[in-house]
Amino acid sequence: MQIKFKMQNQNENEKKNLEKKVTKNLIKDYSNLLNENSFKDFSIFVENESNPFEIKVHKSILSLRSPFFNKFLREQNETDKIFLNQFNKKEMESILKYIYYGNISFENQENLIQLLEISIYFKLDLLKEIIQKKF
After folding, report:
1. Where in the numbering of this chain does the BTB domain appear (predicted)?
2. What value, to the nearest 5°, has the Cα angle with vertex 30 and ends 113 and 49?
3. pTM of the predicted protein model
């Protein structure tokens, strides 16, 4: 994510520092949005059908950042939940951090492969490209 400012009489370092500050604030705000329960209007259930783990999220964020969720939410606009039993809590939380504020961590090769599969499933092409470059 990059923010550009048009300012007169400021050197490039000052502009870059301000851009970094704005970006950090956006990341912090989206991180807080994901971690707090305010205004969440959608639930993702993961792990298994008999004892699913619920993660509450925002439809608007999901639909903006993931073509998969955009399509699903447009087609199922009355629903407030989805069951994704093929994913576990850790995988889903990791991918949501990426969806919300672009943060992704790679623990090991196995984790990389799982995240690649998830990025393909959710049609997150930039994440897919990032992971492929890690191989």
Report:
1. 40-108
2. 50
3. 0.81
